[in-house]
Amino acid sequence: MTPTLRRWTTRVVLLATILAVGGPSATFANVSKAETASVETVTEPTLEPTAEPTAEPTAEPTVAPTVAPTATTAPTAVPVCNPKVDLSGWFSSNSVGKIQNKSTTCSYNVGMASYEKMDEVIDHQVIYSWATGQVGPNSILALSVGVPACAAQIDLFYGGVLHSLDGQRYGDRLITARHTGGTNYCGVIPTVEPTTVPTLEPTPEPTLEPTLEPTPEPTTVPTVEPTLEPTLEPTAYPTPTNTPAPTATNTPAPTATNTPAPTATNTPAPTATNTPAPTATNTPAPTATKTPVPTATKTPVPSATSTPAGKDCSYTQGYWKNHPSAWPVTTLVVGGVTYNQSQLMAIFNTSPRGDTTYILIHQLIAAKLNTAQGANGSTINATIAAADAWLQQYPLGSKPSGAAASTGNSYATQLDRYNNGLIGPGHCN
Fold it and tell me: Secretion signal: which residues (predicted)?
């Protein structure tokens, strides 16, 4: 009970006692009026319930929901490096592709490869040319590969290159792809190479020897002897025996048979066969093959040694192929074979066409030129030695398959990473 109500109750009791004793006085009547007025204007009971419920419910619900959502900033950092979202690509031409990285923090290993189409079965495709690199944040990387003249598929992808599509695909790693050459499939091309080789050698040898020796001997010997002896003897005998019997029997038999037979058959045969055979002998064959080999080595030998001076960085095989004047050396021992610069350039210009020996030797030549110019080879020297030994076991152009091809391709991939600056001292700017 509040103090005011308590006072009011006490005075009411007192007033009732006075009324019971002798009636109200003026003083108590005023008191009672004042108390009644004060009772009606009391506002205390209304203040307590309104203050407490409004303060507590409004404070608690507003604070709790606003603090909790601020903790949702943590999960946004997880999916930052997502190549499927960050990378896009397009082709500037059949041989040049570009890959754009929209990420602000991530770098990706990417590549471009061209494959020869033997038919419409992807498993039958054979790798023709390929290039790899790394695209940094907010940047665009251009890659260039060789494209065959026949039907081909060109792929842009992220991650490692597939040297064969037999039973495997780029799948989610494929950024974009392009097909060229229509139905001009490459399967008929390998049959051209073996037919040209055997036709050149066997033709000149058999025609020269048999035609010259056997024909002149039998024709000259029989024609001279039979014509002289039989014609002289029969004509001499009839002159002494003129009279009766021997004249009729001997004259017609020898003269009619011997004269036309040997003369008509032997004369034209030897003359017609011997004349054209020796003139068609293969005089130009040896001179055509030996001329370009020695002459190709003379030009780049003195000019190649001046440019590099201890560069501790690496170039790709494409750079060395297009800058022969920058070579630090003009001869290299590759796979146990010594090549001069013109021979090495000829190897660079030969398309692998799926042959692992050419895929590997292109990267091995570039790696040896990089170390020769001063690039640190501590990360790749073991792979260079293994690749040299592999090429000695599988010589250039032998087209190994199976596990041997997989081993050679793995060496080529490591050498390509070194030449592109992904391992080792880094790429030359």
Answer: 1-29
